[in-house]
Specification:
This protein has 206 residues and is mostly helical. The chain has helices at residues 15-24, 29-45, 54-68, 78-99, 125-133, 137-151, 156-168, 173-180, 184-202. It folds into two domains: 1-110, Rna Polymerase Sigma Factor, Chain: A, CATH 1.10.1740; 135-206, Arc Repressor Mutant, subunit A, CATH 1.10.10.
């Protein structure tokens, strides 16, 4: 692989041979390309994370990729899977900073809605995230509809957090409200509207 084919176009359309080689050879050049991709995405998403913590996040992401890549079964795009790991790691860092009193940005802050912020995701890791999203076609379609609902509203990061914690991780509305920086009635509203959206989209109850 040449440098001109790296980073933004990695891994290309043929993901299976890339993943196979990475699993077989920890010294493969594809690991370097993966690291470049992770760094680029992390820098784009972690704008509210102090610069001195960026390298720690990258190392944590690469550790998770190394650990869980053998369990990746191609039910979603490799880049989608990697971005899940990156988002979880950034959210975990936000949560730690907030709990330490070093970071206090509200999820609803209009200046930061394009960034990943807040916290409260359990560290379910990439394997669990993939398992949740691709158990079968029906669940995959339901998840896609839920994410579509969240992404078309004014606070997509908060709404994705609420949907994940309540619907998939079975947290209470109160627990979710605390993590999302809102109140329990808002959590209930988001969940009800998301479920209604899915019912209308799929034609049956979630």
């Amino acid at each position: 692989m040449t440098e001109s084919n790296s980073d933004s176009r990695w891994p290309g359309a043929a993901e299976r041979p890339v993943v196979k080689e990475m699993n077989l050879n920890r010294h493969s050049q594809y690991w370097e390309e993966c690291s470049k991709f992770v760094k680029r995405c992390m820098y784009a998403k972690a704008k509210n994370i102090p610069n001195n913590l960026h390298e720690d996040i990258i190392q944590e992401v690469m550790y998770k990729v190394t650990k869980y890549l053998p369990d990746f079964h191609f039910q979603c795009a490799l880049k989608t899977w990697l971005n899940l790991i990156i988002e979880h790691s950034i959210i975990d860092t936000h949560r730690k900073l907030r709990n330490d009193g070093r970071f206090n940005v509200h999820l609803g802050d209009p200046l930061n809605e394009s960034d990943l912020e807040g916290g409260g995701f359990k560290t379910s890791e990439a394997r669990s995230a993939e398992d949740v999203s691709v158990t079968n076609d029906e669940l995959r379609n339901a998840l896609a509809a839920l994410l579509e609902y969240a992404n078309t509203h004014s606070n997509p990061i908060r709404d994705r957090l609420i949907i994940r914690m309540v619907i998939f991780e079975r947290h209470t509305h109160e627990e979710t409200a605390k993590a999302a920086g809102c109140n329990a009635p808002v959590v209930g509203y988001v969940v009800r509207e998301a479920q209604r959206y899915v019912r209308e989209k799929m034609g049956h109850k979630l």
